[in-house]
Design a protein that fits this description.
Layout (H helix, E strand, L loop, with lengths): L3 E7 L5 H12 L4 E3 L8 E8 L6 H5 L3 E9 L1 E3 L8 E4 L6 H9 L5 E3 L8 E2 L2 E2 H6 L9 E3 L1 E10 L4 E8 L5 H12 L3 E11 L2 E2 L6 H9 L19 E3 L5 H5 L4 E2 L6 H9 L8 E7 L5 E8 L4 E7 L2
Parallel strand pairs: 3-13, 15-17
Antiparallel strand pairs: 1-3, 2-3, 4-12, 4-13, 5-6, 7-10, 8-9, 11-12, 13-14, 16-19, 17-18, 18-19
Helix pairs in contact: 1-6
């Protein structure tokens, strides 16, 4: 049984659900979940959680992301990308400096209105389902974090801008590009989208579905599986003495006197950068080195209480 995360390169033409379905067929495992929807025409990094690792899907979804996109200026469509119907087109008369200045205004974040062509649900209905019926409803703006926007290249002949965006969860890159186009006064639509990073998952390490199948046949698939506990590598490590393994197998609370590595743990706690915290997350292992789960250590009570079990 595989338990871990695989950094998949989602190719064009597949939905994120398609990737999961194909992986279930390749790996013969039902318990698989993806960590954030990518449009069918988009490609790039899609971490996929397998087995017990499906418990960390929500944690990966929260991670910051990076995208490389091409903005086509002078065109506005109903989908905010080049697959939609053109609503209007305008002459493009902007230079690189103006584009950089417009993009700069979005750094730090802003209230973004989700697009109608999205999987966001309103009153139980997905927005894209309503959009396909010709229905447009009011959407509440949502604050999104934009850490950085870099203009990598501008081709004035084609009116195309290659952009790199570092952002937080819930950001619609199509809408960001549309908003930049509106700020420039000529409008714009997304021509292509490549997700290059999700947290620590990078595009240079991502594997395609055909490679996944090859690696499975070659029996080297484990080389491409990120173990669950690696997701918590920044947390202090706690090893429980063999006499108290039963406590953690059942998700019970335990104390510092039950540890095998008390000195190392206390040293890690002493090095904490924020001494005012009341508790700290730790990764817990049994005496055989098997990862059990994430616990919360109360600095005053000196007790460990379970947060999430992976046994």
């Amino acid at each position: 049984m595989i338990n871990g995360i695989i950094n998949i390169y989602k190719e064009k033409g597949y939905t994120s659900h398609d990737v999961v379905a194909k992986m279930r067929g390749i790996l013969r495992i039902k318990k698989i979940g993806h960590t954030g929807t990518l449009d069918p025409e988009a490609e790039g990094v899609l971490p996929v959680c397998i087995g017990k690792a499906t418990k960390v899907v929500d944690l990966i979804v929260e991670k910051d992301k990076s995208y490389e996109a091409i903005l086509k200026l002078g065109i506005v469509t109903d989908t905010q990308d080049m697959t939609g119907n053109i609503l209007r087109s305008r002459q493009v008369d902007v230079d690189l400096a103006e584009i950089k200045e417009a993009a700069k205004g979005f750094i730090g974040g802003y209230n973004q209105i989700p697009p109608m062509y999205s999987a966001l649900k309103v009153n139980g209905k997905k927005l894209y389902e309503l959009a396909r019926q010709g229905i447009e409803i009011e959407r509440k703006p949502r604050w999104i974090d934009i850490q950085d926007i870099q203009i990598l290249e501008y081709n004035p002949q084609e009116a195309e801008v290659r952009i790199l965006v570092d952002c937080g969860k819930g950001t619609y890159i199509r809408t960001l590009l549309y908003d930049i186009g509106e700020q420039l006064g000529c409008g714009g639509a997304m021509k292509s989208l490549l997700r290059t990073r999700v947290g620590g998952f990078k595009i240079e390490d991502a594997i395609r579905l055909n490679e996944l199948e090859d690696y499975l046949q070659q029996d080297v698939i484990n080389d491409y599986i990120i173990k669950v506990d690696e997701m918590f590598s920044s947390y202090p490590k706690v090893i429980v003495n063999d006499r108290y393994n039963k406590l953690i197998y059942n998700g019970n609370a335990f104390r510092t006197e039950h540890l095998d590595n008390l000195d190392d743990f206390m040293m890690a706690i002493d090095q904490k950068s924020d001494p005012i915290e009341a508790s700290v997350s730790v990764r817990v292992y049994d005496s055989e080195g098997i990862f059990i789960g994430v616990y919360r250590y109360d600095l005053q009570d000196k007790r460990f209480k379970v947060e999430k079990m992976f046994l």
